[in-house]
Amino acid sequence: MDGIQSRRFAEIERLADDYFRYHFAPVMRETQAYLTEKQGEEMKEYSTSLGGILGMMASSAQPLSDPYQVLKVTGEWNSKTTEDYISMCKEKILGSEEIQHDLAYMAGSGAMPSLGKSAANGTTNFRNSSVATSLMPIWITAWSN
User: Fold this and answer.
1) Cα-Cα-Cα-Cα dihedral of 105, 109, 111, 113, to 10°?
2) Which pLDDT band holds residue 113 (cuts at 50, 70, 90)?
3) Where residue 62 falls among pLDDT bands split at 50, 70, 90?
């Protein structure tokens, strides 16, 4: 790779990093906060329910048991996995018109690989794009490190 291509690649990498930091990361933090809040509410509700109280009483006789194990398996929010979290983030990001517009602009400017245009209106759609869906786990992994 010659110097001009290396410099252009470095510029694109920097822009993608900044875009992730200022647009994707806040969505991920909001999603994490929402998920944590819902998990807390669910734990509180479970702790005060008859099943939760009986479960805690039963687990008190067993020193290493977890009274919330049932909730971690059956709860709507406490049973969420990392894949569920990524899916929630992806849904919010791909549902954002602003981000859709930005990604389409980047694809049109050559900053991203060509994704093909929609025949109906001539715009690029990233909802089912392999680029948008394949970059999500990479960016999430890089952000969490």
Assistant:
1) 90
2) very low
3) confident
